[in-house]
Amino acid sequence: MPMRREKEKLFELAREGRLPEGFRGWTIAWSGHSELPDYKRWPAVGAGWSVAHEAARAGKLPSGFDMWELETGSGRTVRHAVAEGGSLPGGYACWERRNRTGWTMYHSAAAGGCLPAGFDRWDLADSYGRTVAHAAARSGRLPEGFSGWELSDNDGLTVCHLAAGSGCLPDGFDRWDLADNDGWTVAHAAAQAGRLPEGFDGWELADKDGFSVWHCAAFGGCLPAGFDRWELADANGRTVAHSAAEAGLLPAGLDLYRLSDRDGRTVAHMAAESGALPKGFSLWDMADSEGLTVWHSAARGGCLPAGFDGWETADSMGRTVAHAAAEAGRLPEGFHRWKLADESGRTVAHEAAETGCLPAWLDLWRTEDDDGWTVAHAAASEGRLPEGFALWDLTDSDGITVAHAAAWAGFLPDGFGMWDMRDGEGWTVAHAASSGWCLPSGFGGWDLTGPEGQTVAHGAAYVGCLPLGFRLWRLADGEGWTVAHEAAKAGRLPADVELWDLADRDGTTVLHAAAWGGRIPNGVWDWLAADRDGLTLYHYAGRGGSLPDGFDRWELADSEGNTVAHEAASAGRLPGGFARWELANAKGFTVAHCAAASGILPGGFDRWELADAKGNTVAHEAARWRTLPEGFKRWELLDGEGRTVARVAAEAGGLPEGMSRPEMSDRFGGTIANVASYHGYRFRRPAIRLVVGGHGHTWTFPVGWPTRSARLSGLPGRWGAASGAVGPRSVCGWGISVRSGDCRNRCAVLGDVRDLKTSGERDNLTRYQESIIWSAPRPSKIPCRWSHTDNAGRTNAGPTTLWRQDRADNSGRWAGRTLQGWQPRTDRQRRYLCLSAQGHGRRSWRQKTR
Question: Is residue 813 pLDDT above 80, yes or no?
Fold first, then answer.
């Protein structure tokens, strides 16, 4: 597998149709995004996007090409890429074939402008509710006379929103106030793209955070002449001047540089970052609430004054101006302060190695941070190692080698042969390479095993990089879970592989796995076929969202009383109108409890006192998972141990701002205000959701970090905003920390993250930084609870505190080995966030339904 430079050249040749005759490297693929993901989970180039896909989208595939079924991590085939390029040949028949997210060939053809004549199924939607009309609107290809403007996806984003951004709204359009679920209007979308019409008068329209059309227009450069309301601020204190400065469009002569948002981020910070500070600017020492100065921002924006020598100026985490410049690849010639380190020991050399501005002649590869992560690891994770590099076995404090770092990121060189080298957890380089899409053609080590017997083939089946013609489907791990199980669960088992009855040690068949993944094959013959715990195919299908139409046997229970309704509710897949909330398992845990934990209780639900055998009510469960509805009033409801709902909400950080009874107490003593203060909360904080792209996994972290911090570095993929700015990353013990307000430089893209946003207090920059940018209130001191959801909506939950090293895999089973990247001592195993979860979400999701 070529390193980054060679790979970029290869993709360029594919786009231009200049690949050599007889080329055979069609499966060479990116491990992460080569493009930033779009707002609202829109498909982008991600894991597994291969040379074949690139050539197909450009219409440059050679005659005789026969690898049409080659897939990306999300299931986009080469045929999808051909359609996106607008060159799908006539006579094509498999229009409704879906990828893993339900995206059809119609969607791809709409994006490419090659829908069949007479097409009228504009409302055909994928699993996120994105219709064919959305795809066409985004690319500006809606036909004349189109009328389905109000079609919306699951987030309320309409066709109008996308058409406003691409400039294909019809003349006379007047529904500017049409809003999505977050209050983001069509006017916001048009203003962001600089496409508001003359005479527009809806400037005061604002989303739920008070972010107005004025703010978007400032960023899009379409403010009306004579505008003078630069100090207009949203709920987070971000002014219109901030937006204009962010885009480098703040008019000259305005003295607004001291204006700051709630987190101390000034207009000067934003202007410096965009490289738009005026000559003679002198307010360099202004700092935000985290100590980040204008010097830091100017270092990233490339507008430091000539002769600057204050490289050691540091923020509150010890991040110097030199770190900021290195992260942006803007260190000057002759720079020599390579070993300047922040609080976690991460040096300027680490940052420079990732961005490619570390001089090749410097021998700093062994330089370590506090966790033993070397400069070589940092360079390997971004494909920046020089030719002839030989220190592949160099390890950090967790035993992760440089080879593992390069493999996960997809940047192992041609001829690499140390596939069986293991890290501290027992994962081989081959396992990491299977997740990084960089196993070479002809690889033969599919039976190499990792922890608990997971083979390389299991990982490859999970992400979809098994070679065509693979036949070792019966390879099993220590619990009998085979490669066929993994492929079926991911929807990647070839049609000619008929191993549906193959079972693991718990009696889970390949058919069960397919149902769990939402991929029931045609001709299913026995819906009541059960595993050894009594979980039928209906249970698995309920969890996977593949129940047959008209299903009504919600009370069907397994050996512990968990019904099909429990499984569907746990995965957020109950149908509209469901009303059998009182169905309970052997421990009294009801369907309503599961739905409360998943956040899918309907509006108007009023059975909050429904309790399980231990007295835990639905209200307590919702408070624990911060899914209580706005306006909830029953704060004094007690559980079996005497805890009020208010106490549970305070402990979880979910008390609403302005709660009227902060003096309330229960039998455990202490007021709610004291409990909230102890945990660092005085009002509701946002939760962070990361959707890992090709693998489709969502990790939800409530905001709240302990004080101990470690640097999060060397992640595969790009860190930075749409502008290309790259900023500091940090992990603070049990969760991700991104400094408030500094959104462009504090954004997190983990591997191939599809979506990163907040709930409860949405970051306004998300609007025009394409969904990967967020900010949060000041860090607090609560333990981080998390849940995990894959792209089929399957969720494992159950409060687990990461410092106890309780871990859950993608079934909800506490496995002690899945979320290896988020341990309190180190963040160095973060690149195994997907690798460790892959393929090991087998049978038991008992902890969810207790």
Answer: no
